[in-house]
Specification:
alpha/beta; 240 residues; 36% helix
Length: 240
């Protein structure tokens, strides 16, 4: 399994993520890719690769994906660098559950470290075990090789990261591949720390406006427009 994360001016959080992962015995069998995404501050000690400029989440994901497809790894775990979890079995549990559920796309449930929780209700913990959903929010996606080989490269218009999750949902739907969320495996996402700690050279309102505009423009003019609208509605209204 290839484990990847991006760091942009949050080296302590990135190193914290890696130190948590190291508790799991499975970590020693995995390849780690820590990409510094154009930081202007000192690098995380766990850094393995460095980009000269910030190409945001979407560009970073494509960089990792390009490398992944040259390897023989069966899974890619692409983690936000500001995740918090407990215990020595994060990787082991994720991989076991993904395999048990035959999931091409898998995620733990996510608690955001704020009063407001994830807008997409399928990411909440419903206490129902392994749930089949139409797509997952890309806070900690575990993706199997078969869907990544079908994706090959996420659309460049999605450079800010918004819409990668919908795109993966469209590909999964198109090829009848399973997407699974686990209620038995929950993580905390500190959420948007680069903005909260003023570590990025773009305002949150400008970023969100650009990301939303790019995402809507891409899907409106793509073959996935109707499915994209269906997936958004599903994510907002999901219930058991």
């Amino acid at each position: 399994m290839l484990i990847a994360t991006l760091n942009h001016n949050l080296p302590n959080w990135t190193d914290n993520l890696v130190n948590q992962l190291k508790r799991d015995p499975l970590f020693s069998e995995c390849e780690l890719m820590v990409i510094d995404n154009g930081s202007s501050e000192p690098l995380a000690t766990s850094t393995t690769h460095r980009l000269e400029e910030n190409i945001f989440f979407g560009g970073g994901f494509n960089t990792v994906l390009e490398y992944f497809l040259t390897t023989d790894h069966e899974y890619l775990y692409f983690l936000n660098n500001d995740l918090v979890f407990h215990g020595p079995s994060f990787l082991t549990t994720s991989l076991r559950e993904a395999k048990e559920a035959d999931a091409a796309v898998y995620s733990p449930t996510v608690i955001n470290a704020s009063i407001d929780q994830c807008h997409w209700k399928q990411m909440w913990n419903w206490g129902k075990g392994l749930r089949s959903v139409k797509w997952i929010d890309f806070q900690s996606p575990l993706l199997r090789r078969d869907i990544l080989e079908k994706i090959q490269h996420f659309p460049d218009e999605l450079i800010y990261g918004w819409g990668l999750d919908f795109y993966a949902g469209c590909i999964a739907e198109q090829h009848n591949l399973k997407t699974i969320v686990s209620d038995t495996h929950t993580i905390t996402h500190m959420n948007s720390l680069t903005f909260k700690e003023n570590k990025i050279n773009i305002g949150v309102n400008e970023f969100c406006r650009n990301a939303e505009t790019n995402m809507n423009s891409y899907f409106t003019n793509s073959e996935y427009n109707a499915l994209y609208n269906e997936l958004r509605t599903h994510g907002e209204t999901y219930s058991i």
